[in-house]
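Priority: medium. Attachment 1 of 2:
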């Protein structure tokens, strides 16, 4: 075996080090809900333990690098450090790379293909008779001329409407998605961090849709006691609170968001690890953490039925394997005729990707 040696390049080593430090930093930022100073403090502690900071490159040097690259900025009084818009985008891009790095850019130009025939997609070899309203560009002149010769002969060649055939086109559908992220207290219960992977998946899906399916739409909402919409820019900052799980409220908001969308396919992706334990009733929150409260469960199931009637498919990603909750998930899935996965945290991105891409192949 022949080995070729080259001159040691400190710049290459530094670039590799900075790339790895940035991945760690964006992960800690997601975990700290966008708190830059807390993330840097954690990095300093990890640096001391694992030795990736030294006298030649300290955490302060890394902090200056982040400022120079416009990932972070100090406020006017220099009392706090915050993320810039470029820093927020870097978190989303790193989440996308971590979860969907194996994907190749789709050559379809951002459309979801189905097995239905229609207008606006690529031409298919199959043809059909011309109908009023068909585009002239879709006429198959070879087959149309052949029909005219067969029907009228060469000597009295004429082309009439009955001779025309048009190429059929592959229908392109678009998809409107609402992702619901559970921020109830159980998302950090028993020392297991479930909210960080959930946020990463939401950020990665946003980047995935924008880069591969720009004609699609994605809205994100969080649900605890209350339910509210967040932008993809807000995702690093959301955090778990001492909340119950208002799944019904999440489904209600998702329906309102989807109602205004013009996309053909409409779906809800719900990431949760707990049972529904809260609903709004007469303007007040009704809570019950003990068992599956029939009032809460039934009203939540009713929302799933409403989604089905509107053609909205719910896909539930349960990031827990608790058999106690399986009955509720099964009931909700059957009521909606949707899908459910019991996904581990490390496979959550793959599950969501697979289900999202699946909708390219059929109309919901």
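Attachment 2 of 2:
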């Amino acid at each position: 075996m022949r080995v070729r040696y080259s001159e040691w390049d400190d710049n290459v080593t530094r670039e590799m080090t900075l790339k790895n430090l940035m991945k760690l930093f964006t992960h800690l930022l997601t975990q700290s809900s966008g708190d830059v100073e807390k993330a840097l403090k954690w990095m300093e502690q990890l640096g001391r333990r694992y030795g990736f900071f030294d006298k030649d490159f300290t955490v302060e040097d890394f902090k200056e690098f982040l400022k120079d690259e416009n990932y972070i900025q100090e406020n006017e009084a220099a009392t706090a450090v915050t993320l810039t818009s470029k820093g927020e985008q870097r978190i989303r891009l790193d989440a996308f790379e971590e979860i969907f790095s194996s994907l190749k850019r789709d050559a379809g130009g951002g459309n979801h293909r189905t097995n239905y025939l229609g207008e606006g997609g690529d031409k298919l070899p199959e043809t059909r008779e011309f109908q009023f309203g068909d585009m002239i560009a879709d006429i198959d002149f070879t087959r149309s001329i052949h029909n005219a010769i067969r029907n009228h002969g060469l000597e009295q060649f004429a082309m009439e409407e009955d001779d025309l055939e048009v190429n059929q086109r592959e229908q392109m559908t678009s998809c409107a998605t609402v992702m619901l992220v559970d921020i109830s207290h159980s998302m950090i219960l028993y020392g297991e961090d479930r909210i960080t992977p959930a946020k990463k998946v939401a950020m990665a899906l946003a980047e995935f849709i924008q880069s591969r399916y720009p004609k699609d739409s994605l809205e994100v909402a969080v649900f605890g006691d209350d339910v509210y919409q967040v932008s993809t820019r807000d995702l690093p900052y959301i955090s778990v609170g001492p909340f119950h799980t208002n799944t019904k409220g999440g489904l209600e908001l998702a329906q309102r968001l989807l109602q205004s969308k013009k996309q053909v396919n409409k779906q809800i992706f719900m990431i949760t690890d707990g049972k529904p334990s809260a609903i709004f009733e007469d303007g007040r929150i009704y809570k019950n953490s003990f068992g599956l409260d029939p009032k809460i469960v039934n009203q939540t199931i009713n929302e799933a039925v409403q989604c089905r009637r509107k053609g909205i498919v719910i896909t539930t990603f349960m990031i827990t394997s608790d058999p106690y909750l399986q009955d509720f998930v099964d009931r909700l899935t059957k009521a909606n005729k949707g899908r459910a996965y019991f996904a581990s945290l490390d496979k959550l991105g793959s599950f969501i990707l697979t289900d999202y891409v699946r909708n390219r192949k059929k109309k919901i």
